[in-house]
Amino acid sequence: MKTWWVALLRGFGQLLFMPHAGAGALVLLGILINSPLMLAGALVGGIGATLAGRWTMPVNEFNQGLSGFNGVLLGLAATLLMQPSLLLWCLVFFGGAVTAWCFNWGMRRHWQLLTAPYIGLMLLIWVALPNLPAADGGWQLHWSDGYVISGVLTGVGQMGFQGSLVSALCMLTGLWLGGGWRAVFWALLGSLIGALSGYAVGTQQFALAIGLAGYNSALIAVALGIVSGHHWRSWQLWLGISAATALALTGLKMALFPILTLPFVLAMWLVIGVERLKLKA
């Protein structure tokens, strides 16, 4: 039972790419402070995914929280965007289990599915069930007068879908606990690039202030700078950050559907694809 709970906490930590129970606890706290409802969704999806992963995923990967993070994200996104209902909670729980199975299926084939499993399921739910008229992002404590500075910090909070400065401090502490100052640096740099780019192209001030322009850039900066260990001069880092930023700002501008972490996934796949082409050349 202890291993199960540690795996669930590490699943929360994996939102920051930190397989660390302490980092996961700080992510959980950051969500709770901003939106208890979103935390409930995250727990329902994370528990469904972790239970499935316990029986389907290799022990080492399970213990690193890799079974749970897509389920956590599914629960967060569902409570952010959808009208609450018993059907929604059931879909989040069983959908979390499906994301764990999908991630494990891809992992066995050496496919980098990343957060694609929850994105696909969330968009299907979004099409099928009633949406909220406006996203319920919780308290969303931000600095409206200094919206670019606010956006840099809340961009880190939005790695866990929380547009709150207090939640962002929890996430930053989790990054430091799991990956040291380098993880904090890359998250803030990625979010800064996203926020400044959003300002330059005229992104709505409120969207900037709650971090919507920067979180995909923060995600890929940590993924490439910390998890993959690329040096700051590596082309992979700058291609990934540039692509994620451009895709996120395009998605915000078009507003056809919730972009979630799709820009991060597409940018990572672009980097992986270019790497493979260079190896074959």
Helix-strand blueprint:
Blueprint: H1 2-13, H2 21-34, H3 36-56, H4 59-63, H5 69-81, H6 86-108, H7 116-128, H8 147-157, H9 165-200, H10 205-209, H11 215-227, H12 235-254, H13 262-280
Helix pairs in contact: 1-2, 1-3, 2-3, 2-9, 3-5, 3-6, 5-6, 5-7, 6-7, 8-9, 8-11, 9-11, 9-12, 11-12, 11-13, 12-13
Q: Oligomer, anyone?
A: single chain
Shape: globular
The string of secondary-structure elements, in order, is HHHHHHHHHHHHH
Average pLDDT confidence is 96
Alpha-beta classification: mainly alpha
- What composes the largest sheet? none
Strand content of the residues, in percent?
A: under 5%
Low-confidence stretches: none
What CATH architecture of the largest domain would you give?
Answer: Orthogonal Bundle
Counted beta strands: 0
Which CATH class of the largest domain? Mainly Alpha
Count of distinct structural domains? 2
The fold-level CATH name of the largest domain is Ammonium transporter fold
First-last Cα distance? 49 Å
| Annotation field: number of helices | 13
* Helix percentage range: over 70%
Going by CATH, what is the homologous superfamily of the largest domain?
Ammonium transporter AmtB like domains
Radius of gyration: 17 Å
Structural descriptors:
single chain, mainly alpha, Ammonium transporter fold
Can you walk me through this structure?
The protein is globular and about 45 Å long. The protein has 2 domains: 2-128, Ammonium transporter AmtB like domains (Ammonium transporter fold, Orthogonal Bundle), CATH 1.10.3430; 147-280, Ammonium transporter fold, CATH 1.10.3430.10. It contains 13 helices and no strands. The chain has helices at residues 2-13, 21-34, 36-56, 59-63, 69-81, 86-108, 116-128, 147-157, 165-200, 205-209, 215-227, 235-254, 262-280. By secondary structure, it is mainly α.
